[in-house]
Amino acid sequence: MTEKEAYRILGVLPGSEKREIKKKYRKLMLQAHPDAGEAARDGCAHSAQEINAAYEFLTKEGRTGVGTDFGEDIRHGAEAKNAGWDAPVNENAYREREIFQYAEDCSGMALGSFCVAKGKYLWKAEEEFPLFLQSIYRCGKQLLDEIDSCLLREGHGVRQRVQAELTYLLAQQFMDGTALLRELARREGEDADGNGIYYVAAMLELSDPKRALGEGEAISPAGIKNHRLYVKNRAGQEMGYLSFRDDRLYYCIVPLLECKKIRVRMRAAKRRESKSRRSAPGYQNLHLWVKFCSAQADLALRDLNLEIENLLEEYKKGQGREP
After folding, report:
1. Could you give the CA distance from residue 266 to residue 150 in angstroms, rounded to a whole number?
2. Which of 266, 303, 305, 321 is the 20 to 30 A CA-CA neighbour of 92?
3. Using CA atoms, how far apart are residues 7 and 28, in angstroms rounded to an integer?
4. pLDDT tens profile 181-198
5. 3-class DSSP assignment, residue 240
6. Beta strands in the chain (DSSP E)
7. Model confidence pLDDT, tens digit, residues 17-74
């Protein structure tokens, strides 16, 4: 795309300030977005992809000839190959993924989402977490679609199960679980070896809602199954599995447990009366303390690419991992 084409698509004059470019871009995206309705799209001469490409071209970092009074809400890393998304990259990730942003109307109401970049970018706080999960899900779906296309089949009965596992594995490649845990949890000190200890408010999804824990009662891990940490009481009875109000914690704490990079200590919190689903009889609040293990205790890093490759091979054969 040339500079002249970009200005023509957005309908702004050469040398326009970035504030004006952004304003026109948002207006056009409201018309061109697939969720905007047929009438709105008919009044737009260009596709959402063309508008997005023109916007990226005119606002990329380091361009000259454009005004500079523009916010930092969309920054363009100099190292980015094909899009304006400034985030760390995992060069060893199995596959590139899309970065989505919400399209909003003038009142801030979300109309839907659209792709603004593609690459092996790690998740960062500027990317809405539901959109991150959408990105990972689409990445896995594309992998399975390619297999089905090559095998001339429309899908397989185990696809839903395989895609759930694939989403979980791919998500780990684009998240720094250690850094995220330190950001989301409250540091409460360190042990004698200098390992940090962090506190997280968690929940227990009870196997039997009638059998709850007493306040302050200690529980311990019973094992991990289907990427869920099941816990037991002092009598050895399985009570249910660990859960979180913040989905981000699930995608960092459970993988760290599977890699044996952290240890946990848990106690039941006081039960509160609430109409919230997660305060219903089937759930109980927990106090969760997380301690990072010493470097000597760490196992070798998991080869996620190998796990993904094996999972895809199983899917090709019409197999799926048992739940």
Report:
1. 48
2. 321
3. 13
4. 999 999 999 988 888 999
5. strand
6. 97-104, 110-119, 186-190, 196-206, 218-225, 228-232, 238-243, 262-268, 283-292
7. 777 888 888 888 877 765 555 544 455 678 888 888 888 888 875 554 444 333 333 3
Decide: pTM greater than 0.85: no
Is 46 exposed, middle or buried, given 0-12, 13-18 or 19+ CB atoms closer than 10 A? middle
**CB–CB of 85/99 below 8 Å?**
yes
Using a CB cutoff of 8 Å and minimum separation of 24, what contacts does 216-221 make? 216/267, 216/268, 217/267, 217/268, 218/265, 218/266, 218/267, 219/266, 219/267, 219/268, 219/286, 220/266, 221/257, 221/264
The torsion of the CA quartet 316, 118, 124, 258, rounded to 10 degrees, works out to 10
| 184: its two tokens | 């989301």
- The identity of residue 111, as a single letter, is L
CB 190 within 8 A of CB 204: no
- Can you name the residues that pair with 187 across neighbouring β-strands? 198
Q: What is the DSSP letter of 301?
A: P
Task: Report how far apart, in Å, the C-alpha atoms of 29 and of each of 35, 101, 223 are.
Answer: 10, 12, 48
- Main-chain dihedrals φ then ψ at residue 262, nearest 5 degrees: -135, 160
